[in-house]
Structure formats: structure tokens, C-alpha cells
Design goal:
Length: 87
């Protein structure tokens, strides 16, 4: 069974030092231009990991990802009007 995972966006000042974030979870993406890291970690270890991450000198801000709360299942309530505009 897979554990529940939570995503975080970690804003950093140094990308070389940001590789140390791999000990908290799995690093999904590192942006060189905007200096942020997308990190996924187990939901049961979130609180203690956030405290340790915020103490690091290269971490500027940690934001929680709301991707899991966005609905991805859509319903077709309205009729498809594309057939009226075709040639």
C-alpha cells in the first residue's frame, strides 16, 4: 500500500545546497531560473520535516502544494457545441 504523500514548494537561495532537501522526501523538480524546489514527502512526517527545513540557511520560504485539492474529474453538464461550428 502506498503512503499518503504531500507536495511542497520550497523557495531556496542556493540550488547546490538545495540538493540536501532529498533527505526529507523525493525532489520532483528544481527550477534554476526561479529558485524553487518541488518536493514530495510522506504525510505522517510533515510537521517535523517542515521545522527542520525552515531552520536551513538556504531555505527562504516553504509553501504547501494544493494540487491534491484541485478537482480533476469533470462532468459533461452542457451539450457539446463544437459540431455546430464545424465545416
Amino acid at each position: 500500500m502506498l503512503p499518503d504523500r504531500t507536495g511542497f514548494i520550497v523557495w531556496v537561495s542556493d540550488l547546490k545546497a538545495a540538493r540536501a532537501l532529498e533527505r526529507f522526501g523525493s525532489v520532483h523538480f528544481m527550477s534554476r531560473k526561479l529558485h524553487y524546489v518541488v518536493l514530495y514527502m510522506n504525510a505522517d512526517k510533515v510537521e517535523e520535516s517542515l521545522k527542520q527545513m525552515s531552520r536551513l540557511s538556504f531555505v527562504r520560504k516553504v509553501e504547501r502544494s494544493y494540487r491534491s485539492e484541485i478537482p480533476t474529474e469533470y462532468s459533461k453538464e452542457n451539450e457539446d457545441k463544437t459540431r455546430f461550428y464545424s465545416l
